[in-house]
Write a structure and sequence with these properties.
Blueprint: E1 11-13, E2 16-18, E3 25-29, E4 36-41, H1 45-61, H2 69-85, H3 87-98, H4 102-124, E5 130-137, E6 148-158, E7 161-165, H5 171-184, E8 188-192, H6 199-211, E9 218-220, H7 225-233, E10 239-243, H8 246-256, E11 262-266, E12 271-275, H9 281-293, E13 303-309, H10 313-324, H11 345-360, E14 364-367, E15 384-387, H12 394-397, E16 404-410, H13 413-421, E17 425-426, E18 429-432, H14 436-443, E19 452-453, E20 468-469, E21 472-473, E22 486-494
Parallel strand pairs: 7-8, 7-10, 8-9, 10-11, 12-13, 12-18, 13-16, 15-16, 18-19
Antiparallel strand pairs: 1-2, 3-4, 5-6, 6-22, 11-21, 14-15, 17-20
Helix pairs in contact: 1-7, 2-4, 2-6, 3-4, 4-5, 9-10
Length: 497
């Protein structure tokens, strides 16, 4: 089968396609079949340096940052249209390159991000200049003379060169979520994707050429950790935006510290789903299984700690067991598949080690804990649920990034909130209750960047997204999204002189 966009054998730098000096390529594997879908170019320090130089020139002396908001918006509308015409191809690539199920590829990972893209373009046209009050003051060099009258404005300007490093679990979505605000704000960008999903980034080079994006405004390079370190440490880069693990996020902060870079980090999570005694057990259990089965648990905001009131915990476990039996694990290209594969064998082995630790620590395995018997190819793993989990256990504290849920009992709302907050993460959370007012009061006490009550809307919303604590810095989406990629400048002046 011919997979779209897997023909790219060069990197996109300064508006042109460049073969890596090393000539190195790396196989990109379909995680559902373990088949090679293409050979991707592997960039090195030379290509990363060239991308930084190109982005720097494009920002310092090119037209992009100096365009009007309307002119940049027109170009970005062309990008939106170019991506829309490639919708079917992009979705096919998501499935083959990332193991993303067809349902996710159709909705949450393509349609909804494109809608947010469109909303961001409209929002970018809202004037941001603020006028300061007109004031009078004594003339410092002529105190006895006429008083001075003056005012000022506060304007927002692009930060400069932005390095965007994106993960494998939702490559098109995260690539878009960084390119859209950065470019609309007038920055130039170097996009570095995960080595597991390079084609989802390289396709943006094709789009950039088609729409006439000025040279150097968007550069797409691949490479190893050494390449990433140059892209995050070099003085020519003004900002780094990264989605991925907390360990890499901490390293990026350290690498950018000597040059005091702006950092926007969306990191790990160990989100808690609180199920109160008055909850609809069936609805809560469906939500719980949805959280760990979606994309085989490869989502930073997915709730993997299920805090369930002890009065209904046995019923919750049995309902999860019943629902788990209905989940289809298998080919992500099939419309009926709920759970696809993990990205690679190393990811599955990490999950297996976590499951073994959970058992060693005394948690009770009630669902899953194994590879699907009917699948002899692909990096699949069954949805797994532990009961009798203590929040101090590693399976309750460490991000597993796989389809594993830990059920933890509680007796009071206060205890549930304390357990939810007893985590180094603070990305997201959820509450199920037939008392929405009480659920709202509890949501205000949960130390996370977002809380979903009774399942919410089951879709990615145009609302601020980001975490507390080690779950990251800054916010993506929402009305202040573009502000993350700009800085304020105050200009004051006399009036009438």
């Amino acid at each position: 089968m011919n997979i779209p966009f897997t023909h790219f054998d060069r990197l996109y730098i300064n508006g042109e396609w460049h073969a890596p000096q090393s000539g190195e390529t790396e196989a990109v594997i379909n995680p559902a079949t373990e088949e090679v879908i293409g050979m991707a170019p592997v960039g090195g320090l030379a290509e990363a340096g060239a991308a930084i130089s190109a982005a720097r020139r494009a920002f310092d002396s090119g037209p992009w940052a100096r365009m009007t908001l309307e002119a940049r918006a027109d170009v970005m509308r062309k990008m939106h249209a170019a991506l829309s015409t490639r919708a079917g191809q992009i979705k096919s690539l998501m499935i083959a390159e990332g193991g993303i199920t067809r349902a996710l590829a159709e909705g949450m990972f393509f349609t909804r991000p494109m809608q947010i893209f469109e909303a961001a373009i409209k929002r970018s046209l809202i004037p941001t200049t603020r006028h300061l009050p007109v004031e009078s003051a004594l003339a410092p060099f002529n105190p006895a003379g006429p008083r001075l009258l003056g005012g000022g404005v506060v304007v927002r300007e692009a930060i400069g060169v932005v390095t965007a490093i994106t993960p494998y679990n939702a490559p098109f979505l995260t690539n878009l979520s960084k390119l859209v605000p950065a470019l609309l704000a007038g920055n130039t960008v170097i996009l570095k994707p995960s080595p597991y999903t390079p084609f989802s980034a390289l396709l943006f080079g094709e789009v950039a050429s088609e729409i006439g994006l000025p040279p150097g405004v968007l550069n797409v390079v691949t490479g190893n950790a050494e390449v990433a370190q140059l892209l995050t440490a070099d003085a020519g880069v003004d900002m780094v935006t990264f989605t991925g693990s907390e360990a890499v996020g901490a390293a990026i902060l350290a690498q950018g510290a000597p040059t005091i870079k702006r950092s926007l980090l969306e990191l790990g999570g160990k989100s808690a789903l609180i199920v109160r005694a008055d909850a609809d057990v069936q609805k809560a259990a469906m939500e719980g299984l949805f959280q760990v089965s979606t994309h085989c648990g490869q989502g930073c905001a997915l709730a993997t700690r299920h805090l369930v009131h002890n009065a209904i915990r046995p019923a919750y476990i049995e309902m999860m067991r019943a629902i788990a039996g209905q989940i289809t694990v298998g080919d992500p290209a099939s419309p009926g598949t709920v759970t696809g594969p993990l990205i690679r064998g190393v990811a599955r082995e990490r999950v297996e080690r976590a499951v073994a630790r959970g058992q060693d620590e005394g948690a009770r395995l009630v669902i899953g804990g194994s590879r699907p018997a009917h699948l002899n190819k692909g990096y699949f793993y069954n949805v797994t649920v532990f009961d009798d989990v203590d929040n101090s256990m590693s399976i309750a504290q460490d991000e597993i990034f796989g389809p594993v849920a830990s059920v933890i009992g509680f007796d009071t709302d206060e205890e549930a909130i304390a357990i939810a907050n007893d985590s180094r993460y603070g990305l997201y959370g959820g509450i199920h209750s037939r008392d929405p007012a009480r659920a709202y009061e509890m949501a205000l006490q949960v130390r996370t960047g977002g809380v979903v009550i009774n399942g919410g809307l089951y879709q990615l919303m145009d609302a601020p997204f980001g975490g507390y604590k080690r779950s990251g810095l800054g916010r993506e989406y929402g009305e202040h999204w573009l502000n993350e990629y700009t800085q304020e400048k105050t200009i004051v002046f006399p009036i009438g002189v």
